[in-house]
Amino acid sequence: MRRNRFTKIVATLGPASATTERLRTLFEAGADVFRLNFSHGQHEDHRQRVEQLRALEKEFKHPIAILLDLQGPKLRLGTFAKGPMVLKKGQAVRFDMNPEPGTPERVPLLHPEIFKAAKPGGILLIDDGKVRLRIVSHDAETIDTEVEVAGTISDRKGVNLPNLVLPMSPMTPKDHKDLAFGLSIGVDWIALSFVQHANDIAELKKMVAGRAAVMAKLEKPQAIEHLDEIIEQSDGIMVARGDLGVEMPPEAVPPLQKRILAAARVAGRPTIVATQMLESMINAPTPTRAEVSDVATAVYDGTDAVMLSAESASGSYPVEAVTMMDRILKSVETDPLYRRLMDASRHEPEATTADAISAAARQCAHTLSAAAIVTYTNTGSTTLRAARERPDVRILCLTPNLDTARRMTLTWGVHPVRTEDAHNFGDMVQRAVRVARQQGMAKEGERLVVTAGVPFGTPGATNILRIAYV
Length: 470
What we know:
Layout: E1 8-13, H1 20-29, E2 33-37, H2 43-60, E3 65-69, E4 85-87, E5 92-96, E6 107-108, H3 112-117, E7 123-126, E8 131-138, E9 142-149, E10 151-153, E11 159-160, H4 173-184, E12 189-192, H5 198-208, E13 213-218, H6 221-225, H7 227-233, E14 236-240, H8 241-247, H9 253-267, E15 271-274, H10 289-300, E16 305-308, H11 310-313, H12 318-333, H13 336-344, H14 353-368, E17 372-376, H15 381-388, E18 395-399, H16 402-408, E19 414-418, H17 425-438, E20 447-453, E21 462-469
Parallel strand pairs: 1-2, 1-16, 2-3, 3-12, 5-6, 12-13, 13-14, 14-15, 15-16, 17-18, 17-20, 18-19
Antiparallel strand pairs: 4-10, 5-9, 7-8, 7-11, 8-9, 20-21
Helix pairs in contact: 1-12, 5-7, 7-9, 10-12
């Protein structure tokens, strides 16, 4: 199952995509990675999805990546004695930790970490920013605020605090259980919500212990202050524009998206742009022109992947959404401007043998009009460095490690194949040519640019570049 594009598609699974036949159709339509959103569904539901996807993997003889998205801490109001409460601009509102239902005099907010972090001038956003309050004063058990943007609040509405750093772990007891379960059923990526510091990722990686790759979801302003450290610590980055757009001014999100994608590419980390990409296709068979432009912009920005959320999980047109996204990606990638942007945004290789080989492979492939670049890899690091170069041909990733092959399906331009490692120079060339022909990536008379490492099978030893004739 070879895609005729570089950018990948992540599809979220849910009630609209629960059957084996629907999963097969989504995969055939263009979905490369499947996301399990652990904010919804039961463990057994997710186990069944994984089993279905692994069966499809065998059927199509192609690796499929599964991404587990942890829910993270959800800050919410308590309940109200007499239903929804209307707040007027300038009104004084007191929050406390009393679990009794709220009244016009007080609102329950049962999160002690908020009271620890509170300070005058701090902002509370309720219901995705529809209501905005500013902290006037506080003590250990109460927070007094003034309404800046009026609106209605009601039971269990979400709370965001854009300019406060909360003394809390991004992982809840539920997340710990979900993580253990996800690792037991063999997911390939773990996405951590509400990351604030690089330490959040470091703690998760200790728990994962190499059993999956770890992705940081950037959705809080505090994460942007530590962007480079978080990218360095992570295996991948998700630009989660939903909460980011709530906690920051909406107009700040597009330039921030470009900044995050550029920084991640410098570090060689795969990226996903997510949230509301084809939102109208939840209920309509076609997207708005603005949504098409949004997806296209992410591709022009150089993202590795774009993601569908409710569109494929609970919408009425999940297959149409994947098909439309596939069409948009192919359209952008055939635009000459796309290639010029990828070349213009390329950074100098680092002073390592692997980067020198990867940069040379890209240049050779371009000069010789090669059919593909072939990378032999155990851990995937060589393939990631090749993808960082954004070559104008696809990258055939050959690895003996099935986990690596699955994780690489997320990466820009990479077509992973599980195969034995090369045994010698002759086998290196013959295997590359044979697999490239089998996968439809090269035909007789064309050339391949092959990178590998000697001694063969040694991780991180990329030191060979070879031109092979098909």
